[in-house]
Amino acid sequence: MSIVKINVLTVPEEQRETLEKRFASRAGTVDSSDGFEWFELLRPVEGTDSYLVYTRWRAEEDFQNWMSGRGQAAHRDSAATGSERPKPAATDSTLWTFEVVQQAAPKQG
């Protein structure tokens, strides 16, 4: 079964809009990657300042291939383009990894 990567981003309230805009501007950078299955950016509602970036992959190898290629490019320092790199919106980041052992979907019809 699939592998899930959840990046837990600590984002101060004043940086939430910035983080969401940055993700919106990169929409589609992962969608066509081999082995990619799903993406969600989850905004905290109450009790935490942590956003969750949820991605699901066919296999760990697919995630690693994306990270070493297109993922690295999506996060690359913009100094190569001559512009100054913007300050990160998140103050901390932790990556969790899970294997999918069960799943369910709504019944059709």
Kindly, what is the distance between the CA atoms of the first and last residues, rounded to a whole number of angstroms? 26 Å
Number of strands: 4
What is the overall number of helices? 3
Strand order of the largest sheet: 2-3-1-4
Largest sheet report: 4 strands, antiparallel
What's the short story on this structure?
The chain has 109 residues and is α+β, with helices and mostly antiparallel strands.
Q: Could you characterize the architecture of this molecule?
A:
By secondary structure, the protein is an alpha+beta fold. The chain has three helices and four strands, in the order βαββααβ. A four-stranded antiparallel β-sheet has the order 2-3-1-4. A hairpin with a 7-residue loop joins strand 2 and strand 3 (about 50-55). The relative contact order is 0.30.
